[in-house]
Amino acid sequence: MTGQVTGVGIGWRPEISGFVAELPGLRFVEVIAESLPPGGPLPPGLAELRERGVAVVPHGVRLSLGGAEPVDPKRVAHLAAAADLVGAPLVSEHIAFVRAGGVEVGHLLPLPRTREAVDAVVANVARTRAELPAPIALEPIAALFDWPDDELDEADFLTEIVDRTGALLLLDIANVYANARNRGRDPVALLDRLPLDRVGYVHVAGGADRDGVYHDTHTHPVPAPVLELVGELCARRPPPALMLERDGSYPPAAELRAELDAIARAAGQPVIT
């Protein structure tokens, strides 16, 4: 499967567009697909990055690939239009559901890890891929609970989905840490059982402890254990593209640069700032 991004990137958000525009070694950015107008034009800062040759990856949050109902054709069409608009090398979405029976829940919710759920994801990914101009990478989410009728563990569930869909894996290394920690398990052991050869790119994000639970917030600095997992990942396969994911409480530019440099160093890659 084709569809490649390389180096170190960052999630493009309007609030930090000026900061992102000044990063000299930036190779790619990710933009929330639903924030893009299907017919254009691109937001000014994003258009300038495209002109510089920075790859742009649309990241969907509303398809509900794990829903029992078929994906909404209009939402798939919007994701495809976003990919066309930015000349995307690939697109990404979540292994999750966000609606049922026409009700929007407003969150990415975990799936029961059953074979029936695998079948639903596989069918919806096939419907989506048929309309997309670029390959798709699927992101497992950070889950605060597991359903009681799970038939597969997380690694087997994800491996079966990527094997049957032919999709890439968007590996959120912070989610690996959060899920293992909240289940009282070893994140490195989980990492070793994931299909790392299918990783298209990697999210790296911060989180925080609240009431004995680790929350993947995207508003806190990347903690040392997550950076250590980046190193563990890169010791097991060639370093993939890595992206800092930040969605609020943006720190001063110097702190953001330090986070990006820390991610690059953890992966043994050149810093971009």
From TrEMBL:
UniProt xrefs under Pfam families: MbnB_TglH_ChrH (PF05114)
Source organism per UniProt: Plantactinospora siamensis
Gene3D superfamilies linked: Divalent-metal-dependent TIM barrel enzymes
Protein name per UniProt: DUF692 domain-containing protein
InterPro entries reported in the protein's UniProt record: MbnB/TglH/ChrH, Xyl_isomerase-like_sf
